[in-house]
Design a protein that fits this description.
11 helices, 294 residues, transcription regulation, 11 strands, transcription, DNA-binding, 44% helix
């Protein structure tokens, strides 16, 4: 049925009558006569070519066709009422489309996102995770949290914090490691950034190995850490993003040496004017960063 020709009066009369199983009580709710409600429902039934009620001596019995129609109408009218109430109260919901590198999403954002929702109950956040490769314009993102130097063409970037990398592995593998040089003989899991392990070995004063015993290459630190959890090798990842694993003892950080190859940044396209929802999220995450550093 074409939207502009929807029989709204008949649908409203039917929905009220179906809830009350009475034309009389529906008329009282809708502030019209019982005859008007009955006529509107009859007109709707004629248009649909199906009976929506069985008329009984003491009321109405809804038919199978009426049962199929009722939930859709009730939900639609309820949602319209809720939206109108919010508009009247100046509380229109806003959408915020947020892209987040997966490690940050799981390690920092999700455990704290309920705080943002409590402070801003009328902002609906749509989170999409990525492996740090994101096209904000193509994906329709308002904001993106990513890892790097903060230099992305056409993008305004707000630095959040550094995320130093260090070897992480299971306790069983950690027991075999006495010094950083022991890692040369270990299976090293790595991301698509091929120079990370070389940089870490240099920071740990380990002479460059003729050949690093490399394992699987991952495009996601989350997948790499899952492999580490399963004992497939040693990951080079930010301990701050896996604090729950470290606290539980599932993962160990065998050496204190870390390297910093970038920071997490909150970014938006310079061509994208900030909305109220974008400003609210930016203020919230900045506040959380400030409180954490105190």
């Amino acid at each position: 049925m074409v939207r502009q020709f929807l029989p709204l009066n008949g649908l409203r009369a039917f929905e009220a009558s179906a809830r009350h199983l009475s034309f009389t009580r529906a008329a009282i709710e809708l502030c019209v006569t019982q005859a008007a409600v009955s006529q509107q429902v009859k007109s709707l039934e004629k248009r649909l070519g199906a009976a929506l009620f069985q008329r009984l001596p003491r009321g109405l019995k809804i038919t199978a066709e009426g049962e199929a129609l009722l939930p859709t109408l009730t939900n639609s009218f309820d949602q319209m009422a809720i939206t109108l109430d919010r508009i009247e109260a100046g509380q229109v919901r806003e959408l915020l489309f947020l892209g987040v590198v997966g490690t940050f999403a799981v390690g920092w954002l999700l455990p704290r996102l309920s705080d943002f929702q409590r402070q801003h109950p009328f902002i609906d956040v749509r989170v999409s995770t990525n492996n740090n490769r994101v096209d904000m314009a193509a994906e329709g993102l308002d904001l993106a949290i990513r890892f790097g130097s903060g230099s992305w063409h056409g993008t305004e970037a707000l630095r959040l914090f550094d995320a130093p990398l260090s070897p992480l592995c299971t306790p069983k593998l950690a027991e075999r490691l006495r010094s950083p040089a022991d890692l040369v003989e270990a299976t090293l899991l790595r991301s698509y950034r091929a120079d990370e392990w070389s940089a870490w070995f240099a920071a740990a004063n380990v002479p460059p190995a003729a050949q690093i015993n490399a394992g699987i290459v991952f495009d996601s630190s989350l997948a790499m850490m899952e492999a580490a959890l399963q004992g497939l090798g040693i990951a080079l990842a930010p301990p701050s993003m896996f604090s729950r694993h470290l606290s539980s003892g599932a993962i160990r950080q065998p050496f204190h040496t870390t390297i910093s190859l970038g920071s997490y940044w909150l970014t938006r396209l310079q061509s994208r004017p900030p909305t109220a929802a974008m400003l609210a999220f930016s203020d919230w995450i900045t506040s959380r960063m400030s409180s954490a550093s105190q």
